[in-house]
UniProtKB/TrEMBL annotation, chain A:
The keyword Heme does not apply. It is a multi-pass membrane protein. GO terms for biological process: aerobic electron transport chain. Keywords: Cell membrane, Membrane, Transmembrane, Transmembrane helix. GO terms for molecular function: cytochrome-c oxidase activity. It comes from Domibacillus epiphyticus. InterPro entries: Cyt_c/ubiquinol_Oxase_su3, Cyt_c_oxidase-like_su3, Cyt_c_oxidase_su3-like_sf, Cyt_c_oxidase_su3_a-hlx, Ubiquinol_oxase_su3_dom. Residues 1-207 form the Heme-copper oxidase subunit III family profile domain. One of its GO terms (cellular component) is plasma membrane. The keyword Transmembrane applies. This is Cytochrome (Ubi)quinol oxidase subunit III.
From TrEMBL, chain B:
It comes from the Bacteria. Keywords: Cell membrane, Membrane, Transmembrane, Transmembrane helix. The keyword Membrane applies. GO terms for cellular component: plasma membrane. The chain crosses the membrane at residues 28-49, 55-76, 88-109. InterPro entries: Cyt_c_oxidase_su4_bacillaceae, Cyt_c_oxidase_su4_prok. This is Cytochrome c oxidase subunit IVB. It is found in: Cell membrane. Pfam families: COX4_pro. It is a multi-pass membrane protein.
Amino acid sequence: MAAEEKFSPQTWPVSPEQATLEGKNKFLGFWFFLGGETVLFASLFATYLALKDSVPSPDHALAKDLFELPLVFLMTMLLLTSSLTSVFAMYHMKNYNFKKMQTWLFITVVLGLAFLACEIYEFNHYYHEFGHTFTSSAFGSAFYMLVGFHGGHVVFGLAWIIALMIRNAKRGLNLYNAPKFYLASLYWHFIDVVWVFIFTVVYLMGMVG
Amino acid sequence: MANLQSNSGDPKVNYEYRRKKSADEMRMQVITFTLMIFFTVLAFAAVGAGFSKWFIIPFVLLLACVQVAFQLYYFMHMSHKGHEAPQLFMWSGIFVAFLTILTFLTIIWW
């Protein structure tokens, strides 16, 4: 099947993301990358766990002084819902419905931006209220490294999805761009996977000491 | 490549069969999502209710693992055919991740 071939919903293949050799290679390569990302985030989690609440003097804020569950709960809901909306987008991709796919990707992006806004507010709040910064303590370094690296992934994922939406706005779906949309959605799900461990290990376990 | 097409030579039948298959899968994913929301609420409620930390920590970690398994196997389709290589990559990654965290936690033990 040629990458530029025109399709209809009836002729669109079952797994369009793997219908070409290029698509198969990207699929395999991207999962390999995600395996590596797992290890990378594990090293940041390990560092955070080892340095949690390590502060130079007792006047520094500790995890349980900093965190506020309602904000973290809101952020979790935003990211979890955006994961579902990107599932919807891929459902329409597999049904060869370009417009609906774009709509759901747009909703995913909006939810992702809302998550990012909450995170910016959160970091700003820690800085102004508690003087909790990247250099204020080992705890601060490990915290911002882990949570900030996840936030960086959110920024990258958003930029990726927006770029794909704009680049292919007039092109519609074909076997050349279907793997690209599919992998961007995998990346977005992986961001949510990491967040599940962040809200559990950093925030929930941080609250109970 | 996962080949889920029916054996019918009629493309129309084939098409309807595929539509139905993906609609069924979609319903599964909405159920998965509902469960994930439920687990999240449970985890936050356990902390909010102020149980002992020896209950909360294993409880929220277990819920996180279940949620991540849902995310990987349903949302990221790792339960589908043709995902043997992704399983190998992810499970190897998880194994090294586990070792890394174990090392860092034991190195500060005393």
